[in-house]
Amino acid sequence: MSDAISVVIGWMIGWVVASLGVYAFADWKGKNGLVYFLFALIFSPVIAFIIVAVQPTSQEVLDARALKRGDLKECPNCGVLSGYLAYKCDPCGEPFPRESS
Ligand SMILES: [Zn+2]
User: Fold this and answer.
1) This prediction's pTM
2) CA-based angle 34:35:40, to the nearest 5?
3) Fewest C-beta in 10 Å: which of 1, 5, 11, 65?
4) Does residue 2 have a pLDDT over 90?
5) For residue 72, how far is its CA from the centre of ligand 1 (angstroms)?
6) Which are the contacts of 74, defined by CB distance < 8 A and separation ≥ 6?
7) Would you kindly state where each structural domain of the chain is located, as residue ranges?
């Protein structure tokens, strides 16, 4: 009897931990982690994980990572992103400073 209870408790803990994993995964992809966390808790962490996995990472997150890596430059004048090889901003013509990083 107590074995069955510990199995159930183990499942519940695993379920919550997996849901937290879904939260982190969704957050990493720029999604609303809380929504997917609740979905995972109520339905299934596996289904929630698959839903997050098949969705593209949000563009803002991709841009932020590219900026961090130095693959993109952000125009100090208008904020438009350009490739790291660009020497001036396309939309506004603002020249970029020479490589500083
Ligand atoms: Zn610009």
Assistant:
1) 0.74
2) 95
3) 1
4) no
5) 13
6) 67, 80, 81
7) 1-57, 58-101
